[in-house]
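All the exercises in this workshop are built on plain-text protein records. Instead of coordinates, the fold is spelled out as a row of discrete tokens. Once this layout is familiar, the rest of the handout is easier to follow. The record below serves as our worked example for the rest of this section.
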Amino acid sequence: EAKVDSDFRTGIVFESGEAHYDRYNKLHKERPLRVTSVRDHLLNGNVGKRCVVLNYCGEKRQCPERDWLEDDDYLRVHLPGYMKRLDRLSNCNCSDRLDREAEQYKSIYFTPDSLAEAKKAATSLCRLVTDVVTNKLDNGFAIIRPPGHHAEPGMAGGYCVINNIAVAAAYAREKMNVKKILIVDWDVHHGNGTQSIFINDADVLYFSVHRYHGGNFFPFLRSSGPNTVGTGEGEGYTMNVGWNSKGMGDNEYLQVWDKILMPIAKEYQPELILVSAGFDAAQDDMGECHVTPDGFAKLTRQLMTLADGKVVCALEGGYVRRVLCNCVENVVKTLLDRNSGKRTAVMEEELSNQDGSLLTRMAGATVTTTTTNMERVINSSAAKSIRDTISAHQKYWKCLQRDDAIG
């Protein structure tokens, strides 16, 4: 599986955040080994050899100062007071103070180097996005930590310090004049931070599919549900598909793509796709869902038909290393495949006049499905979650206003 001449130019970058860790539990599930394991898996195999391996911040822990993002790049999405609090921790070797700061948030820990490591992660993602937008690369995957999608404008949480994907989206708009951005979040947990940052912004469409359980699954917010649609100018540009039971797998996620995400994305016509790529919804990970590595590849393949294929993924969750490595590898292989988008487009055209969901067929289901009989392929709870999101957004999107949209 050596590099193929027809491969896309897929960039991959690794930031393991070695100096950001739980000082009391170095075996914490969110630790540097998550990234180094994926790095070793990819680079010791054939897939890594087919990629453009980038090293924006250098081999050492210290990123060259000239390559760091500017303060304004963070302040587009985070409050000045929050950034100052984090900055003060950088000069702190007092364990009590680090602990007191961490106690202000949900599921977070700090070291004196946490901000520096978070900035390296965000910097590397922004550099990768720049290379994709400027056509130096076709697409890419930033395997970085700490993750970001739970970080709100003024609050850390859920292992997240800086909201990497939000910083990158705002950076692309400000520095590269990207007009419309689609953020797709398939982590098993809702990206409450990303949602809050872009809640009133029509130029960023935030789409998340996650476990919700009526607000009784982390981050334990009712606003993670389908009725949160955005505010002000951003009304209609926040979309949540919230699962209310565990065990969702390829068919359920592919139905979400088929019934909601892809029709809306084609209507929205984004210029850039950013993916909060958490893999804790994977089979055998901790999210108690059953999405397979091939399932994540299929989701990615669909996204590659949008925005001229400008897709950049950023690692969020995913904590069982064997599972994480396989999932990332499958997504990267899909990003490399120049025929991914073409294959999807051809299949869509061939099946457009046939009964049944394209994406369910792609998943290998033997039972055909239409919008009126989703329960034949997915469970009734999942079908209701999909219908709830469609109902909440029908008035905003023409593609959801057809007679059979809800089913």
